[in-house]
Amino acid sequence: MSDAYTRVPSVLTHRLPRPVPADELAACPVGEVFRRMGDKWSMLLVVLLGSGPHRYGELHRAVEGISQRMLTRTLRGLETDGLVWREVHPTTPPAVEYGLTPLGLTLLEPLSALADWAVRHEAEIGEARSRHGGTRTPR
Amino acid sequence: MSDAYTRVPSVLTHRLPRPVPADELAACPVGEVFRRMGDKWSMLLVVLLGSGPHRYGELHRAVEGISQRMLTRTLRGLETDGLVWREVHPTTPPAVEYGLTPLGLTLLEPLSALADWAVRHEAEIGEARSRHGGTRTPR
DNA sequence: CAGAATCCCCACAGATACTG
DNA sequence: CAGTATCTGTGGGGATTCTG
């Protein structure tokens, strides 16, 4: 209320004419994508399926650490979003294949870009973390 | 164990010589990055800060929907990973600025690539979802 | 202004057991 | 083989209140 509130460094004056429409971003598909891929397994499965279709058991063994429940749920989620297809072969015993749809394949590219970034800057993140973890206990 | 288990379609024979080392991927930095960015707000804040440094209150208003708790926690997390810097100006009242570090700026690029993908394929995902939601109630 | 502290909730991960 | 069913725990995240 008083003029004390105006006593801020001039460098802080730097701001955008329009502070960026954040709600647009929040409601925008970008958030959706990260919500879908941000879980523990989705991205991993997309990358695995990027090498070609695979059967349920193959994926289960390949990921190794994922529960059947999570494997099924994650694949179903990806299928719902049209990123993965699912085909049941009525054999005995049943065989089910999963693979990337054309849409899923297009996702593979930007995903790889991010993966590359992660690999390239892994060390820097580690350093930064230990720096903060060493001087100040987080949490 | 019986030969009934061999009675699978020949198309399923298609598999990789080496089923892809998934544990490597699971333990690899890619997972870490997605864990950091995959939460509800991190990516959004990185994009916002991509337009330049901003103050706490600006961010709070810009995101609009985020609680103070989450804003602080998310910024701290990004700071810990060396993606965001934080500068306190000892004024009255205090003013705190947040901005992207050089490392954070490099992340902005692959992030944008993924964002572009999301925007471009938003409609397709929506269609796929309604397709599955219409014929088969998920969950 | 920029937070720290506290309480609470529920969505979702994980393990286990069972089935067509 | 490829799931479903069920239970349980963890913690992400929201609302509120208080403070330097």
TrEMBL record, chains A, B:
The keyword DNA-binding applies. Residues 28-126 form the HTH hxlR-type domain. GO terms for molecular function: DNA binding. Gene3D superfamilies: Winged helix-like DNA-binding domain superfamily/Winged helix DNA-binding domain. The keyword Transcription regulation applies. InterPro entries: HTH_HxlR, WH-like_DNA-bd_sf, WH_DNA-bd_sf. Keywords: DNA-binding, Transcription, Transcription regulation. This is HxlR family transcriptional regulator.
